[in-house]
């Protein structure tokens, strides 16, 4: 019987901890907007919060001749192991923010082809699995 | 007793869960919703497609950066709001005016911009979303051209919030109309500008590229064709536009991109290329039909 009570209490404590440690991805995505480089116009902010999948994904139609910037904001470190990768409409990877073990907080992508692009966030050694991101553009 | 305890544990696990659905679950449940009235797919899926639609502001920036002059004659009159009595017309023209406001903002035509702000506020109030359009802040920023960046930022944020709110309130149909109106107005402005600059290749390509966005808009409208007669009619108009766009060919050649890190930013060099085959006749046909559809919307 003691074991049962212990299990029940553990479940409830874990649930409470989950609530305490809730991810405020919206605040982090808002923090990212002013961090877009000068000259970039804000388009979208994205919440990065690990759910059922190993990644978080959004999509947007990029336009030829336009340069896009996507940045990452996290609570603990600049990127907290969050990596943004960009895939074209055929799912070819065209950009990533992690190269040679280095995490970069922003990517700038001058688009040569109009089409749907998939903006995918993955977690590589992340401690919070929580972050925000902003998308901007300039001609 | 053991069964009761196991049942209690299972109940706690399910009750204490986060309650989040996976995308797959949401998608399947969305498909199931065809049994009831409303869209034939989940609003979550609709939201993800809506998110793809590019901001009309991008086209206004293109026009300004390529040296095209401001022309208020391309825009819908801000005095037309009294014509829009249904939610259908209000949502469509909220999008039209949103694009017009972006165009006036980019060209720093603040006097015109203030008129569009008032029209947007009126339509937004009519749709019970006026609280998300901060006309006081936007109006104050519009009085000084030094505030252009802030003006564009606040306006974009307001429209994003409106879209998000509509989707969370189960009114994604209005979001679809809002984005459709905004897109069509941007296409109209581009076509009119192109007609005045017939040799401009960039404008022709921009018109051709809209084929991709048209397909998304048609997909969104198709979700409501059974439940909303107005949206079905608008879809029929878009299908006619699609017939012209079917003659436009977009070819894409993928080549792996390269990169360098500059000041902490990964700067990508896109080595892929694309070509857009569109004839002057296609442009004329697109322009004429766009004008015709737009006239139905703004009248």
What's the shape of chain A? globular
Output the radius of gyration of chain B: 22 Å
Low-confidence stretches of chain B are 10-36
Portion in helices of chain B? 55-70%
Number of domains of chain B: 1
Largest sheet, strands/sense/barrel of chain B:
2 strands, antiparallel
Distance between the termini of chain B: 72 Å
Describe the structure.
- The complex is a heterodimer of chains A (139) and B (299).
- Chain A is of the alpha+beta class.
- Chain A has one domain (23-138): Jelly Rolls.
- Chain A has helices spanning 2-20, 25-32; strands spanning 41-49, 55-62, 67-74, 82-87, 93-96, 98-99, 102-103, 106-110, 115-123, 130-138.
- In chain A, the strands form three sheets. In chain A, strands 1-10-3-8 form a four-stranded antiparallel sheet. In chain A, strands 2-9-4-5 form a four-stranded antiparallel sheet, with no helix packed on it. In chain A, strands 6-7 form a two-stranded antiparallel sheet.
- In chain A, a hairpin with a 2-residue loop joins strand 6 and strand 7.
- Residues 12-20 of chain A have low confidence and may be disordered.
- With 299 residues, chain B is mainly alpha-helical.
- In chain B, helix 5 runs antiparallel to helix 6, helix 5 packs antiparallel against helix 8 and helix 9 runs antiparallel to helix 10.
- Classes of the chains: A alpha+beta (139), B mainly alpha (299).
- At the A-B interface, helix 1, strand 1, strand 2, strand 5 and strand 8 of A face helix 1, helix 4, helix 8, helix 10 and strand 3 of B.
Features:
A: 139 residues; alpha+beta; Jelly Rolls; four-stranded antiparallel β-sheet; 10 strands; B: 299 residues; mainly alpha; two-stranded antiparallel ribbon; 12 helices; 64% helix
Q: Topology, please?
A:
The complex is a heterodimer of chains A (139) and B (299).
Chain A: H1 2-20, H2 25-32, E1 41-49, E2 55-62, E3 67-74, E4 82-87, E5 93-96, E6 98-99, E7 102-103, E8 106-110, E9 115-123, E10 130-138
Antiparallel strand pairs in A: 1-10, 2-9, 3-8, 3-10, 4-5, 4-9, 6-7
Chain B: H1 2-15, H2 23-32, H3 43-50, H4 57-65, H5 87-106, H6 110-126, H7 135-142, H8 148-168, H9 172-196, H10 201-222, H11 229-245, E1 249-253, E2 258-262, E3 265-269, E4 273-277, H12 280-298
Antiparallel strand pairs in B: 1-4, 2-3
Helix pairs in contact in B: 3-9, 4-5, 5-6, 5-8, 5-9, 6-7, 7-8, 8-9, 9-10, 9-12, 10-11, 11-12
